[in-house]
Amino acid sequence: MGPAKAVRQAAWRPRLPKAPLSNIVAEALAVLLLGPLFLHAAFWNGFPFVFYDTGAYVLEGLGHVLVPERSSVYSLFLRHAGARASLWYVAYAQAGIAAFTVTEFARAVRPQTSLWELLAIGVALAFFTSIAWFVGQIEPDFLTAVLPLSLYPLAFRAREVGWLRGAALVGIAAFAIGAHPSHLGLSLGLVLGVALYKIVRFALRRRENLPNAGVVLPLLSFALGLAMVYAANYALTHKYFISRAGMTFLTARLMGDGVVGPTLDQICPTTPLKLCAYKDRLPRTADDYLWAPESPFNKLGRFKGTEKEYQTIALESLKHYPWRSVRTGLYQSLLQFGMFRTGDGVFPQMSVLSTEFRNFMPKQIGAYLKARQQRGALRFVDVNVVHYTLAALSVVWLGFVLWGAARRKQWDKATLPAFLFLALLGNALVCGMISGPHDRYQARLIWVVPFALLLTARPRLHPVLRWPVESGT
Predict the structure, then answer these.
(1) For residues 394 and 283, what is the distance between their CA atoms, to the nearest angstrom?
(2) Which SS3 state, helix, strand or coil, does residue 148 take?
(3) What's the pLDDT tens digit per position in 143-192?
(4) I want to staple 292 with a disulfide (CB 3.0 to 4.6 A). Which of 169, 288, 395, 450 is the partner?
(5) What region, left, alpha or beta, does residue 345 occupy, with left being phi > 0 and alpha being psi -120 to 50 degrees?
(6) How far is it, in rounded angstroms, from Cα 361 to Cα 369?
(7) Residue 49: helix, strand or coil by DSSP?
(8) Buried b (16+ CB within 10 A) or exposed e, 20-42
């Protein structure tokens, strides 16, 4: 093919405009188009996904009844997002939050990213990671990933973010922190990590060219998130507190580790506790104690009025068996780090919302029962061949990126993978130490790794959309 023909052919080839995210129109389009992508799994299901805990959140938010083991912040979010009219409104709001956070993260970390590149990444995330299964689920779990994606730009890219978008990210991060008890621990670890980085940077400022970081905005997000927890709990009970269930979950985890039984043997002769009557027939796992129908936990009133007793048991267990308790918790955290299969708990939930639907959302019962989830049509074995494999390879790749940047002392490229590893480790530590390992705890966060890698450690995507020009004589 001659040069003239090649030029003519190139002239009519379709070319996508660059549309960088620094352009406000491209930024807005990214948010609008990513939202439906992140809901594709829920659309296919025919109804937002529900989990065993969903009924408690609905009861708490729409019934205005405190459920000690659930977040009041997320429950009230359901109420104000329109759950009574349709749970789809909640899913749309969650998709908007996720899409906005992803877009602003991309805009701050790599401003030259085009709209089309981000949409291509969004398609990859929607179909090959767990994001769509959490954004479309009536649970606060989608916010676990939103948390580090909000805090990192606030800490390391505040100038690129700007004050208006920064204020929005502070609000989103605060909501994410308050919406789940584990997020309080995760966010505190991330804020302390940024603060420690600033101390190290100050100490090494003459020897290493470390990029600057700010701790004020992440700390403000944490303070606002904590204030949300107090305010939401007060709205339901007219009392200020953080949680009435944390020590219960810790006691259940210690019970599964075999620590609570020997502790009760030592303290029951001098400390009368209700659980002493069951010390010789305690369940073997935390889940059996918390959720089995015949558990002593149900006979003792579950979470109501027992927080002081469980606090005593947990503290005495840690006092009498400190190394055994911590060692087992660290082992559980290590297991949690590698557990991130998609679909944990997403099975038919025919009864979990039956009472709540009848009382608060009767018009949604038909669509709920017709959903693929309730008909048992969801299969995750094939899904996890892709999701789990991609996520595991991404974590390994992220490790190589961090190691390579540190070896070359390219600290500006090392901050993001280091921050993400801190988030992964922190989430595994909080969940493993307090509740014990479950796939969904890490699966709700793991998709941030392939997202960050596709955004920062990959060749440009849009040249592959162009046809190659043949050279000839």
Answers:
(1) 38
(2) helix
(3) 999 999 999 999 999 999 999 999 999 999 999 999 999 999 999 999 99
(4) 288
(5) left
(6) 13
(7) strand
(8) bbeeeebbebbbeebbebbbebb
Contact predicate 20/112, CB 8 Å = yes
DSSP secondary structure of 304-322 = TT-HHHHHHHHHHHHHHSH
* Tokens encoding 182: 């584990």
Distance CA 22, CA 246 (A): 43
Mean pLDDT of 295-312: 82
The confidence score (pLDDT) of residue 25 equals 94
Q: How far is Cα 379 from Cα 373, in angstroms, rounded to an integer? A: 10
pTM to 2 decimal places: 0.89
Phi-psi region of 302 (alpha: psi -120 to 50; beta: other; left: phi over 0): left
Write the DSSP assignment of 153-196 as a string of letters.
Answer: HHHH-HHHH-HHHHHHHHHHHHHHHHTSHHHHHHHHHHHHHHHH
Number of other residues whose CB lies within 10 A of the CB of residue 246? 21
CA of residue 367 relative to chain centroid, distance? 27
CA 443/CA 98 separation, integer angstroms: 16
Instruction: Convert the pLDDT of each residue in 245-285 to its tens digit.
Output: 888 888 888 888 888 989 998 899 888 888 888 888 888 88
Please tell me the distance from the alpha carbon of residue 32 to that of residue 101, in angstroms, as a whole number: 12
What is the signed CA dihedral for 361, 363, 369, 373, rounded to 10 degrees?
A: -60
